[in-house]
Design a protein that fits this description.
It holds the Pfam family BACK. By secondary structure, the chain is mainly α. The protein is built from nine helices and no strands. It has one domain. It starts with a helix and ends in a 6-residue tail after the last helix.
């Protein structure tokens, strides 16, 4: 089941009947985000799933790690981008802005340090909403200023989630469905290939 966790998690977002499983998986990921962010198929993570993770108050990551992984995902959706944003064209910035449009509101920029903001966010200022960027700039330059809407720090803890028997069963059921679906498709393909008519 461990090796199919990402597939199970993604599947939980496809059906309303898996809403409870979806919430559980999100909590599990919050305690062990590397299951997603360090996985080989992170680049194919659906946007909805990524947003669900970075919205979590209990996510076990610093905010700079969240931002770096959001950027990593954005770059993966736009292969061919220069690695250095100083070499971006106007179209590059616009493409990345459109890609991350739904993700950016879930990044808690106000919880970054001024150094992190300067080196990791300012180079990408063109993909941020102008009002947000100007308020962040004012906040980091003037400690006495009040941000428009400063989110609370994440409450991530080091407590590992234990899989209850109920959710263990649900995870196994979803894994079985995925396996059966894959097997059926494979068998159908084999049958079609074996019955293909080849002229003599």
């Amino acid at each position: 089941m461990e090796q199919n966790f990402n597939l199970i998690y993604q599947t939980s977002f496809e059906k309303n009947s898996f809403l409870e499983l979806q919430k559980y998986c999100t909590n599990l990921i919050s305690n062990n985000p590397n299951k997603i962010f360090k996985s080989l198929d992170f680049s194919t993570t659906p946007e909805k799933l990524l947003i669900s993770i970075i919205q979590s108050d209990n996510l076990q990551m610093t905010e700079i790690q969240v931002w770096e992984n959001v950027l990593k995902w954005g770059f993966a959706q736009n292969p061919g981008f220069p690695s250095d944003p100083s070499n971006f064209s106007k179209d590059d910035f616009n493409s990345l802005k459109n890609t991350l449009h739904q993700c950016i509101p879930s990044v808690r920029f106000y919880n970054l340090t001024s150094k992190e903001f300067f080196y990791n966010v300012v180079p990408y200022k063109k993909i941020l909403p102008n009002e947000l960027y100007m308020d962040l700039l004012k906040t980091f330059l003037d400690p006495d200023s009040k941000p428009i809407d400063k989110p609370k720090p994440r409450k991530g803890t080091n407590n590992s989630s234990k899989i209850s028997s109920h959710f263990q069963k649900r995870l196994e059921e979803v894994e079985t469905e995925i396996h059966e679906s894959t097997t059926y498709y494979s068998q159908e393909t084999d049958i079609n290939e074996s019955t293909t008519y080849y002229p003599q």
